[in-house]
Amino acid sequence: MATEQTNRAPTLAPPRVPEHVVLRQVGVGAYGDVWLARSATGIPRAVKVIRRERFEHERIYEREFDGLKRFEPVSRAHPGLVDVLQVGRSDEESQFYYVMELADPADADGDFGPETYVPLTLRQWLQTRGPLSVADCARVGAAVADALAFMHQRGLVHRDIKPSNIIFVAGQPKLADVGLVTGVHEARSFVGTEGYIPPEGPGTPQADLYALGKVLYEMVTGRSRLDFPDLPREWLQRPPAEQFGELNETILRACAPEAGERHASAAELRDELLLVEAGHSVRKLRRRERRLALWRRLGVGVSAAALLAIGLAWFERGRAERANRRAAEESALRARAAAQERVARAALYAADMNLAQQALAAGNYGRAASLLDAHRPQDGGPDFRGFEWYHFHERMRGGSRGSLDGHQNLVAALVVSSDGGGLYSAGFDGTLREWSFESLSETQRWS
C-alpha cells in the first residue's frame, strides 16, 4: 500500500539520465525519488527514479513499470495529465526512470530557484496556504475529474488519487505519480493509500471517484480525509453558505459507501462540479429528479383521471424544462471539451515534433518513425499535420526499407551475420538482440 509522499534532504547519489544534468533531490515516495534536472536545452524537468531495492517482490517493481508503459502513450493527449517526456530503464542498476514536466514552484511568488525549489502539489498548497474557496475547489476537482474521464474511457484506472499526486503546471492541476495506473480489468491487487480506498476496494473507476471525493473534502475544509464526513456547523454557514452546501452534496455522493450510489462516471462528477463552480444548484436538480420518480410511482395506483392528467402535465412540463436546461449545459460542456481537445492536440503535436527532431538528430530513426506515425489521421478523421511532419518524414524515410524497433536506449554496436541474412545489435539497455532482414523483426534476445 502506498504512503504519503514527503520531502527530505538528498541521501542518494544523483542518477544518470541521458541528455540531462541532475541537480538535486526534491521528493521521496514509497517506491522512488523525484529529482530536479535540466535538459540539454536548459529547460528544468522533473525525473522520478524507481529503484528495485525499494520493493519486496519483483512483480511489484514490474507492476510500477507496466503502469508507466500504459500511461506514457496517453500522457500528452490531455491537459489534466502530467506529460511524460522520456522513459529509461537500466536492469544493471536495477532501476528505471521517467522525465516529466516540472511542477510550478511552491513559493507564493512563483520564483524558480534550483537551490530552493519545492514542487507545488495540492498537498503542499493545503499545508502552506490553507483550504481552497468553494469555486476554486470545484474548478480544480472538475479538471481532475475530466482527466479521470479521459483515462477511464481508454480502459485505465489511476488507483492512487490523493493531494500529493496532483501537481500544478502553469496553474493547471494535473494528475501525476502514475506507477499504479493499470487496465480496468487487470486491477486485482490491493493498492492505494489509506483513507482514499472505498469499502469495496481499489481498482475500478468508481474507486477513483471515491478517492477524488475525499480529496474534494480535504480541499474545501483543510482537514484530513480520515475526518470525513465530520463537518463543523460553522462550515455550513461560511459564505457562500449555499454554494458550500451544493459542493458538500456532490462530495457526499462521490464518497457514498455503496458504489452504486456514487456518480455513474467521472464525466457526471465533472458536470456537477462545473455547475457548482458556475453557481447553479445541484440539489434542485436532484429534487426534480426525485419528484419525477415519485409521480411515476403514484401514477400506477391513482385511478382519478383528473389527478393523473395533472400529474402527466406537470411531468411533461418538468421534463421539457429539464431537457432544455440539460441541452444548454451539454452544449456549453461540449464546446469547452472541444476547445480543450484542440489545445491538447496542438500541444501534443508540437511536443512530438520536437521529440522527433531530437530523435533524427541522434540517429534514432525508429523513435522518430513512431512519433510521426502517431499523428497520421485515422479512419477519415481530421488531419493536424503541418509542414514539419512531412519534412521530418522525408528525412527519416530516405532509401530505407524499414526500422528495427526494440531497444529502450542507445545502440552501442551492430554486426551483420556471416550469411548476410541477419543482424546483431548491442544496446545500452543491457540487451543483445538478433534481427531478421527478411521480416524486419527481432528473432532472439539475450541479457
Give an account of the 3D structure:
This protein has 447 residues and is α+β, with helices and mostly antiparallel strands. The protein folds into 3 domains: 20-284, Orthogonal Bundle (Transferase(Phosphotransferase), domain 1); 325-401, no CATH class; 404-447, no CATH class. Helix content is 43%, strand content 17%. It is built from 11 helices and 13 strands. Strands 1-2-3-5-4 form a 5-stranded antiparallel beta sheet, covered by helices on one side. A 4-stranded antiparallel beta sheet has the order 10-11-12-13, with no helix packed on it. Strands 6-9 form a two-stranded antiparallel ribbon. A hairpin with a 5-residue loop joins strand 10 and strand 11. The longest helix has 57 residues, at 305-361. The two termini are 31 Å apart. The model is unreliable at 5-10 (pLDDT under 50).
Q: State the CATH architecture of the largest domain.
A: Orthogonal Bundle
Q: What form results from the Cα inertia axes?
A: globular
- Kindly report how far apart the N and C termini lie: 31 Å
> How many independent structural domains?
3
Task: Give the overall pLDDT as a whole number.
Answer: 82
Q: Main sheet, how many strands, which sense, barrel?
A: 5 strands, antiparallel
CATH H-tier superfamily of the largest domain: Transferase(Phosphotransferase) domain 1
Percentage of residues in strands:
15-25%
Which blocks of ≥5 consecutive residues have pLDDT under 50? 5-10
Helix content: 40-55%
**Number of separate strands:** 13
The strands making up the biggest β-sheet line up spatially as: 1-2-3-5-4
CATH names the topology of the largest domain as: Transferase(Phosphotransferase), domain 1
Structural class, by secondary structure, is alpha+beta
The CATH top-level class label of the largest domain: Mainly Alpha
